[in-house]
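Students often ask why we bother predicting the structure of a whole assembly rather than each chain alone. The short answer is interfaces. A chain on its own may look different once its partners are present, and contacts between molecules only exist in the joint model. In this exercise we take two input lines together and write out one structure for the complete complex. Read the inputs first and try to guess which parts will touch.
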Amino acid sequence: MSDPASSLGTRFGEYEARMRQIIASKWQTNDVDRNLKTAPVAIVTFEIMRDGTIRNVKLTQSSGVFALDTSSQRAVLDASPLPPLPNQFERDSARVEILFQLKR
Amino acid sequence: MKRVSFATPTRTVGLRFAATAAIALMGAAVFAQRDRPDMIAEIIGGALPSIAITDMRGSGGAQDFMGTFNETLYGEVKSSGQLKMIGKTFYPLQLPQQPADFKAPTNGRSNGPWLTDWSQPPVTANYLAFGYTAVRDGKLVLFGWLFNVGQPDTASAQVIGKLYFSTLDETVRGRWLANSRRISSRSSDVRA
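Now the answer. The structure tokens for the assembled complex follow.
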């Protein structure tokens, strides 16, 4: 039997990869200053409900760049709904933390 | 027999403190466990989207123009500076000409060209432009597609799928280029 405490990403790597891919495809960095080559990470946390709906999107660490912070949160919101959580995942929602790193 | 108690006032206080601390630590551990994300991921963004452009073939009389067409298309997209070009050396040997050429693998076994041939190393492209041309009623017709090869199937991969009619001049190339440039508005890169 799988350990309920183990992370979703470790046990369901395929789901994580898909989620990451979807959110990345929604992340628009065009409005971020073109001269900005890099910036501190913006950290966004959220919950994925059993049906894939995203809720409680929060910026838990600012990059210090408003456009970057906003675009990161927007990417997560626009990715909803994600695919439903894997059936084998025990709980009704999963907590996710995404680190958005600008690198040009 | 007389029992001897070692619970001096000082020791009692110490035990109480230890018990309280242990409970607090256990509570904190449970709380931390509950708040720990189930998944932590990193997304690297801001890099130019990468594109692979296959050499398109032409049927009948159109083939005579394809060498120049392919060379010009590749060169102009490259010079736009808005997309990272993937060198053709890395391309798979089987080049798609239309969406029907893609065959989804079954049980992990390849059935022919597939999106992952382009999205994964050594190509590692975000987008793939492909198509073919034909001459119809004296006009050059370009059947062109632009796929986001990071998608799981061809239906969701299609960004552009159009027919371009033109005389045999720069118009077709120009329209195709304009559409290709549209994807530069979306720039994201993912690192595992």
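Check your guess against this: Chain B has a mean pLDDT of 77.
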